[in-house]
Each structure stands twice: as structure tokens, then as C-alpha cells.
Design a protein that fits this description.
Elements lengths: L11 E4 L7 H7 L5 E4 L2 H6 L1 H11 L4 E4 L8 H14 L3 E6 L1 H15 L9 E2 L9 E5 L11 E6 L4 E6 L7 E4 L9 H20 L5 H23 L4 H21 L3 H13 L3 H16 L4 H10 L9 H18 L16 H11 L11 H11 L1
Parallel strand pairs: 1-9, 2-3, 2-4, 4-6, 5-8, 6-9
Antiparallel strand pairs: 7-8
Length: 384
């Protein structure tokens, strides 16, 4: 029997190779008169920022650039970008880059229309007013932030990631141009692709998922299984890039509605304590958390194996369920994901504090296997 559910998706998605040329028209459509472009140094040095500026100049739209976004962006960075927005009198935002840039732009938009401080909006549905209009232009295929009403900003003083969530935060437009992915270095491409896979996986097995989330998540897993290796091998492969971009966006819509789980609960502290890139943290944790969760929903894992391209014909559900994690580990080997947390700078001494943060976040509560502090400690150890 189907359960009642609610599904939210407000962003207008524009998918097109070369679609960055439509950015000026999209700004006009949302009524933007002066734009703050929020990005990072990597996007600027790659030449992608110039591709965003050109259509703005063509439409004679004034703009200001903030290019100081870092991985795991901090509250201080959001505040600095907000001060520039106020000083320049910008009324709309463009976030161009990975999830860090788009999340920073979301934070700036919140600060522009809601009382300080930003941390008071941690959690779900805390906004007083809608943020400034935002057009999101992803240059990675991973976070799905271009279609979610979620943002994660690091509070350095607490070594803690502040997660905010509201449908009001969903960007007005998600401008998907797969040609923007061609400058990604292979390690970033691999990590962001695994981030998308984690989103799709957690939305698919979540205890609060629904049929629409399931369909989006399943097809996202299928596209990643078919295309991440090809994209990693050749970032100029526009077909593979486009498939990965669609997979990331679909997973973003799925997890905003179906939620994430234990992988994200554990990954956020790794960013807060050690500044480990979010996609890398998710990727290293993913197979261990899958091993832990599998016994709760083996039939879901059998379907994940099928989506990843495994042959499960004539095999029992239990046997097929093992193939899900096996296929993920094989993919990780092929795209050279680091084998453990020790390789990326994590320290065992922080595991206790990180596990307590993970439990406090409550993000793990939608995982289909009941998860305790002791379980999380054991998983950190297994992934080390």
C-alpha cells in the first residue's frame, strides 16, 4: 500500500550544451538588475568565469565578482560576500562552481533578507523571508545544490557544519551546461561523481523516500554506473559529462525530498574537523555504510546492484544485495578514490567528537538500520 507523501521541486531546469550563453536572459527573466557572481579561484583561473560574464555583458547587466569561496565554505566567507553585495547594491545572485559556491550564494541570499546571524537558520524551515533570487550554474557533477533548498556552511569556531534547509532556498533557475565540466581535474571529477552517487543511494534507501524520489534516485544510479568511468577517462566526452550532470541534478531533487542518511551524518564532521572535501569524505565512507545498512533492506540493495549494471538474473535477493557494494567498490578502484580516511588527513583522536556531532545532527535517523554512537565509531574505524 502506498504511503502519503509530499514532493517539492521549484527550480526551473535549463539543460543545454553551451547553455551558459543564456545566463543574461535568465537573469532578465528573474528581474535581476545588478548581480553578485559568487565563485572560487579555480573557476576563475579555468576560464569558466569569462563564459559567465560574456552573456551578462551582452545583455548590459551590471555585475560584481566575489571569487573567494573555499572548499567547505565558512560563515566568515558568506559574511564577506554579503558585505560586498550590500556595498555594491546587488539585488540578485549567480552561484557558479561546485556546491561550495552555490551554497555560499544561498547563504548570502538568506542574509540579505533575514535577520542576522546566519546560524539561527540551522535546521529545517527557519527562514523568515525568501532569499534573494539565485541562478545556479554548476561546474561539477556532484552536489545537486543547483536544485535543492539546502546549504551547508562551516562554523570554524565549533568545527561544525551548519545545515540549513527550506524550499525557499531552491534557486530560481538551474542552468545545466555539460560543456562547463570539461576543465575538471580527475580527482575532483571522481569525488563529485561519488558525491552524486551517495545522494542517490541514500535517497533510494531512506525511510522517508517516496515513489518519485525512488525513480529519480534509481535512474541517477544507473546513469552514474554507465558514465562515471567514461567521464573520468575523458572529461571532454560531452555525452558522458551531460549524463553525469543530469544524474547529479536528479539525485539532488531526490535527496532534498527523500533525505540523506548515515554517510552524510559522518561526512559532515570530517569536513568540519579536517577540511576534507565533502565528495571525498562521502566516497570513502560510502561502501562501509552500505555494508552496515544492507541487512535492513536487501531488496533495495538488489535493485541498486541492478542499476549499477550487475547481472542479478536468477540470483536470490540476498545474493544480489551483496553485489551493490561490490559494484561501488569496483567503481571506486577504477576512478582512484583514496582507500581510507588516514590517506586524506583524518585523525583517530577526533573520532569520538565527530561521532557525537554525527548523532547530534540527527541526519542518520533516516537510515533504514538503527544506528548508535557505537555503530558510527565502528564505521569511522572501518573507513580509517
Amino acid at each position: 500500500m502506498l504511503k502519503a507523501f509530499q514532493f517539492t521541486s521549484f527550480a526551473r531546469i535549463h539543460f543545454r550544451p553551451g547553455g551558459i550563453q543564456k545566463l543574461g536572459k535568465e537573469i532578465r527573466n528573474i528581474g535581476g538588475r545588478k548581480i553578485l557572481l559568487v565563485t572560487d579561484k579555480g573557476v576563475k583561473t579555468s576560464g569558466l568565469l569569462e563564459k559567465a560574464v560574456e552573456p551578462l555583458e551582452k545583455e548590459a547587466i551590471p555585475y560584481v565578482i566575489f571569487d573567494e569561496v573555499e572548499p567547505n565554505p565558512s560563515l566568515e566567507t558568506v559574511e564577506k560576500a554579503f558585505e560586498l553585495l550590500k556595498k555594491e547594491g546587488c539585488d540578485s545572485l549567480v552561484g557558479i562552481g561546485g556546491g561550495s559556491s552555490i551554497d555560499t550564494a544561498k547563504g548570502v541570499g538568506i542574509m540579505a533578507t533575514n535577520p542576522d546571524p546566519l546560524v539561527k537558520y540551522e535546521g529545517a524551515d527557519k527562514l523568515v523571508s525568501p532569499p534573494l533570487p539565485l541562478v545556479a550554474v554548476p561546474t561539477t557533477a556532484g552536489t545537486g545544490s543547483e536544485v535543492t533548498g539546502a546549504a551547508v556552511i562551516t562554523d570554524k569556531s565549533r568545527k561544525y557544519k551548519v545545515s540549513m534547509r527550506s524550499p525557499l532556498m531552491i534557486p530560481r533557475v538551474a542552468l545545466l551546461d555539460p560543456e562547463l565540466l570539461c576543465t575538471l581535474p580527475p580527482p575532483v571529477l571522481a569525488a563529485t561523481g561519488m558525491d552524486a552517487l551517495t545522494h542517490a543511494y541514500e535517497a533510494f534507501v531512506s525511510t522517508v523516500t517516496n515513489p518519485i524520489c525512488e525513480a529519480l534516485a534509481y535512474d541517477s544510479i544507473r546513469l552514474i554506473g554507465q558514465n562515471l568511468r567514461r567521464f573520468y577517462a575523458n572529461p571532454d566526452n560531452v555525452e558522458a559529462a551531460g549524463s553525469m550532470m543530469l544524474a547529479s541534478t536528479m539525485a539532488g531533487i531526490a535527496f532534498f525530498n527523500g533525505r540523506v542518511g548515515i554517510v552524510h551524518a559522518m561526512a559532515h564532521p570530517l569536513g568540519g574537523f579536517f577540511n576534507i572535501p565533502h565528495g571525498v569524505a562521502n566516497a570513502i565512507l560510502l561502501p562501509h555504510c552500505m555494508d552496515f545498512t544492507r541487512i535492513a533492506v536487501p531488496e533495495r540493495f538488489a535493485r541498486i546492484a541492478e542499476a549499477m549494471g550487475e547481472d542479478i538474473w536468477g540470483v536470490s535477493t540476498e545474493e544480489a544485495s551483496f553485489k551493490a557494494t561490490e559494484s561501488v567498490r569496483a567503481l571506486m578502484d577504477d576512478i582512484r578514490i583514496p582507500e581510507g580516511l588516514a590517506q586524506v588527513g583524518a585523525n583517530r583522536e577526533a573520532f569520538d567528537a565527530m561521532a557525537r556531532d554525527a548523532v547530534e545532527s540527527r541526519i542518520h535517523l533516516t537510515t533504514p538500520r538503527k544506528t548508535s554512537y557505537e555503530d558510527i565509531m565502528a564505521l569511522y574505524e572501518a573507513a580509517y
